[in-house]
Amino acid sequence: MNVSEERLEALKEIVNIGSGNAASSLSSMLQTRIEMTVPKVWLVPLNRLSDALGRLDEPKVVLFLKVEGGAPGKAMFVLDENSAGIIVRKLLRQPDNVDILKDEMAHSALKELGNVMVSSFVTALATFSGITLQISVPALGIDMIGAMIDAVLIEGGRVDDNVLILNTKLSASEASEEYEGMFLFIPEEGALDKLLGVFGI
To answer: Do 46 and 159 meet the contact criterion of CB atoms below 8 Å apart?
Structure first.
């Protein structure tokens, strides 16, 4: 699927509008002003996903949710372990580092973060496309990103040849902190055509 840069920029603007809701929710959760931008939106062929993800043997924190409705698929929000640890510490109001591998409260905090982030992007797509979409309860994984992607792909259902990826940047201006994450939407076969078709792509 060839998609012009102009169309992807238009989609980026739509997602930026929707991301404002996530920034507001995160600001409330973290009790500090959070700004969120989406500096890059891209469609990556499934067989070149490693080009976007980088080293597949690098440990990442992944929040996974199923997307159901008119354009179903699998949604993931990916963070590096350092960013995830800082955010969890803020969510739990902990002065010291939290063991995100073993701490159940940390897991709950991360799932809530994933729910906010993924739902914001999915809601943006649903709102502007007019296609009804719902998301499942988030699941958490902390492992090599390549292994987790493989697990998602073999879970079931035929997926599209392209993956929609949104690079996200979160910043807490008061503390001069910045966190980067990545949202992936792995659509079921034909789902991406429905979404992008509505946008004239």
So the answer is: yes
Q: Does the global pTM surpass 0.90?
A: no
Q: Please count the CA atoms within 13 angstroms of the CA of 169 that sit on its side-chain side.
A: 10
Q: Helices marked H in the chain — which ranges?
A: 5-30, 49-53, 81-91, 104-129, 145-153, 191-198
Annotated domain spans of the chain: 5-198
Answer for the pair 135, 65: CB distance below 8 angstroms, yes or no: yes
Distance, C-alpha 1 to centroid of its chain? 22
d(CA 124, CA 120): 6
One digit per residue, the tens of pLDDT, for the chain of length 201 reads 455 676 677 677 777 777 888 888 888 887 778 888 888 888 888 888 877 887 888 889 999 999 999 999 999 999 988 888 888 887 888 777 778 888 888 899 899 888 888 888 888 888 888 899 999 999 999 999 888 888 888 877 788 888 888 888 888 766 667 788 898 999 999 888 887 776 666
Superfamily of domain 5-198: CheC-like (3.40.1550.10)
Residue 98 in 3-state DSSP?
A: coil
